[in-house]
Structures are given as structure tokens and as C-alpha cells.
Amino acid sequence: MVSYSVCVYCSASTTDPDLISLAARVGTEIARRGWQLVSGGGHVSMMGAVATAARAGGAHTVGVIPKHLVHREVADVDADELLVTDTMRQRKQLMEARADAFLTLPGGIGTLEELFETWTGGYLGEHTKPVVLLNANGFYDGLLSWIDELSQRTMVPARARDRLVVVPDLPTAFAALEPATATQ
Ligand code: AMP
């Protein structure tokens, strides 16, 4: 039986040691729970740290990477499954299909793109999987306050905003990702 799979979206470029360590803790915790990791299949920055730590803890890791990024993001050749897609769109589709829940950590525009696609997909009824955003040390405060402003201007309905579970720390994040307590 395939174990519960969490897809983690995060930076593929930061060198901030606190963020690298946060990503590693996420990988360790996924393994400790006997879950499986689905990630972007890169071996750099936070993305590499989460996969390496998950594997070190004994988790099965699935990396999904488009062929044109195999070199730039240093494909995670140690992944238990490394799936190489033709395009970025196929990557996202496959990551989403292979996951039971999504966790977004701090990241840049690639991470935001992945978060928004998964979040809007959930809000529009394309899937019922938990979509969790870890607002570590207020990293996403600016984005969230802008979204609140858009809600006040009636451009983001409450049910759309509520589809995203925003959490401040890892214990709350993992509680929100749990199959038993999963929303929807
Ligand atoms: P970043 O948050 O910009 O460091 O990117 C994190 C990850 O998102 C990297 O693996 C990028 O390759 C990936 N990424 C960037 N753009 C996209 C996109 N349009 N769709 C899916 N993933 C993307």
C-alpha cells in the first residue's frame, strides 16, 4: 500500500540556514510519521534538504522534475522515484496527482505558483486535499494581508480564503496535514 503522501513546495534557491533547517525538519517529520514525500525533484536549497532528511529518516521520496531543470536544480538522483517530465505543467500535474496533502514552506515565485494552483484547484472543487501554508516567522504576512484586503474588496470570497489552512509552526502544520483531521 502506498503510504500517505505529502507534497512539499519550497524554495530552490535560498541559502538561509534557518530555512534549510526548517525544510530538513519537515523531511524528518514526514519520515517519522511513516509518510511519503513528493517534491520538485531538485537537490538544491530547501528542496534538497527536505528530500535528504526524509530519506535519512526512511521515507520513500518521489521527485518530479521537468527535463530542462534536471541540471539547473541538480536532479535528486537518490530519490526512490525520480520522474522526469517534458514540461513544467506536467510536473505540477504529476506532483498534485501523487499527493494526498500539500505543504507550502517559504519560497519564491515558483513556490507561489505551485501554492496558488493547488489552492485555487481546491477552492474550485478539483480536489479535496488539505492545502497548508506554513507562515514561518511571518514569512507570508505581506501576502496574507494583501489577500485579506482583496477579501474586503469582495474579490476573494471567504470560502476561497478558508480553503487555505495557514499555520504558524510545524506541529500545527502536521496536525492540519493529518489524514484524520484533514479539512474537506
Ligand atoms: P522558487 O520558489 O522560485 O525557488 O521555486 C521553487 C520551485 O518551483 C523550483 O523547483 C522551480 O523550478 C519551481 N517552479 C518555478 N516555476 C514553476 C511553475 N511555473 N510551475 C511549477 N513549478 C515551478
Automatic annotation (TrEMBL):
Keywords (A to Z) from UniProt: Cytokinin biosynthesis, Hydrolase
A GO term for molecular function: cytokinin riboside 5'-monophosphate phosphoribohydrolase activity
Pfam family, one: Lysine_decarbox
Gene Ontology CC entries for this record: cytosol
NCBIfam families: Rossman fold protein, TIGR00730 family (TIGR00730)
PANTHER family assigned: LOG FAMILY PROTEIN YJL055W
Entry protein name: Cytokinin riboside 5'-monophosphate phosphoribohydrolase
Native species: Nocardia alba
